[in-house]
């Protein structure tokens, strides 16, 4: 189903609603007791977290002359960026055409169309690259049908990264100090966008990336992923691999369990990315006593009522939340073993760059390089018994 291409007149006053989201203290057990961490509640901002990136990408394209006034914007999305682009399109006066897939929740489809978006859905994943590749193939056809349409290419657009400078500024203004930042990774935009400015405030700040099991971003083999909005089946070039000190892969049972615990114990919660980031942030606070830990909750719980918070959904997908892992398994390198549940690795590398040691890559891709000095453990890090291999 498609809808007519609406042409918003533009309402720049909406830009005044961007950002300035609350920072909450989270202390509920996730699933173990921990000293607490700070969570930036991006789901409470107009257009959600990705409105920051969407506005930045459209403004950057307009400044360079790549996006004429009133020209359409086309993009592939699993939902969250779609809301951000709908916001940016209304604010800046651009019709928005989004390519989703039939896994997109009916409530999200209705919401996007309510915001005036034209939504195209692909009905089967590609043999290689899954739903993401199928959406991108449809997007290429749409660009040919819509002369002058602009494709932001969120996975590889540096304006995506630049859009999160405001998020970094808000964190720096709200916190006196920060030792550890935990970021979920999809396009790589918000982690890359905040870590540079924040390390200028706190040079020894550690960055922990959170990915989904089955995601290829950090060098794991591509598998079918239940969680949406976290991870990727491609390799986004916005990911700042050198900036990460470690990465955790989290499975859907662990993420859903954390989301539900957040909802009942701290009231604020969200979807797959939020649960995964919260789980790792709580772990970091527990194993680094005295450290100030913060994370970002990308969205709220509303679109996940029939997945994350639905017992029938969990049963249908074999998610036993009562047996969710309470600590990660550790592997020495992303290619050492496949992460099928919560897994931690302190070696972070770009999977498209050959490794120095020439060791084989069981995923079938070229082996990644050894981590750079910026990705290595920092000399002032706190090591605890649980963290020692």
From TrEMBL:
Needed cofactors: pyridoxal 5'-phosphate
GO biological process assignments: alpha-amino acid metabolic process
Record keyword Cell cycle present: no
Assigned keywords, A-Z: Pyridoxal phosphate
Chain intervals with Basic and acidic residues compositional bias: 378-389
Highest rank taxon of the organism: Bacteria
Region (Disordered): 336-389
Domain Tryptophan synthase beta chain-like PALP: 17-299
InterPro entries the UniProt entry points to: Cys_Synth/Cystath_Beta-Synth (IPR050214), TrpB-like_PALP (IPR001926), TrpB-like_PALP_sf (IPR036052)
SUPFAM superfamilies hit by this protein: Tryptophan synthase beta subunit-like PLP-dependent enzymes
Protein name in UniProt: Pyridoxal-phosphate dependent enzyme
One Pfam family linked to the record: PALP
Presence of keyword Transport: no
Annotated organism of origin: Streptomyces sioyaensis
């Amino acid at each position: 189903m498609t809808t007519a291409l609406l042409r918003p007149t533009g309402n720049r006053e909406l830009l005044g609603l961007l950002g300035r989201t609350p920072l909450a203290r989270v202390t509920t057990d996730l699933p173990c007791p921990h000293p607490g961490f700070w969570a930036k509640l991006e789901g409470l901002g107009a257009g959600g977290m990705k409105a920051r990136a969407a506005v930045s990408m459209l403004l950057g394209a307009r400044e360079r002359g790549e996006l004429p006034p009133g020209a359409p914007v086309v993009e592939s999305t699993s939902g969250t960026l779609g809301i951000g682009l709908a916001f940016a399109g209304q604010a800046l006066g651009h019709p928005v055409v989004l390519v989703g897939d039939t896994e997109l929740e009916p409530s999200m489809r209705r919401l996007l169309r309510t915001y005036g978006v034209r939504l195209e859905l692909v009905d089967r994943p590609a043999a290689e690259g899954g739903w993401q590749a199928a959406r991108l193939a449809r997007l290429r056809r749409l660009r040919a049908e819509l002369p002058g349409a602009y494709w932001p290419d969120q996975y590889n657009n540096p304006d995506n990264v630049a859009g999160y400078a405001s998020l970094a500024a808000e964190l720096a203004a709200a916190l006196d100090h920060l030792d550890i930042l935990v970021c979920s990774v999809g396009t790589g935009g918000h982690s890359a966008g905040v870590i540079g400015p924040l390390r200028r405030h706190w040079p020894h700040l550690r960055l922990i990336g959170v990915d989904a099991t089955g995601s290829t971003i950090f060098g794991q083999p591509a598998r079918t992923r239940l969680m949406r909005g976290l991870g990727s089946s491609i390799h986004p070039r916005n990911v700042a691999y050198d900036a990460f000190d470690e990465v955790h892969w989290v499975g859907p049972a662990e993420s859903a369990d954390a989301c539900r615990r957040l909802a009942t114990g701290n009231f604020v919660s969200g979807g797959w990315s939020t649960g995964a980031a919260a789980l790792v942030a709580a772990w970091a606070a527990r194993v680094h006593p005295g450290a100030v830990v913060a994370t970002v909750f990308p969205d709220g719980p509303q679109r996940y009522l029939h997945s994350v918070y639905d017992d029938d959904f969990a049963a249908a997908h074999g998610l036993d939340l009562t047996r969710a892992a309470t600590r990660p398994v550790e592997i020495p390198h992303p290619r050492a073993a496949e992460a099928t549940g919560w897994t931690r690795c302190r070696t972070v590398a770009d999977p498209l760059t050959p490794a120095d040691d020439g060791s084989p890559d069981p995923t079938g891709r070229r082996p990644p390089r050894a981590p750079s000095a910026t990705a290595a453990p920092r000399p002032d890090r706190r090591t605890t018994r649980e963290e020692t291999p």
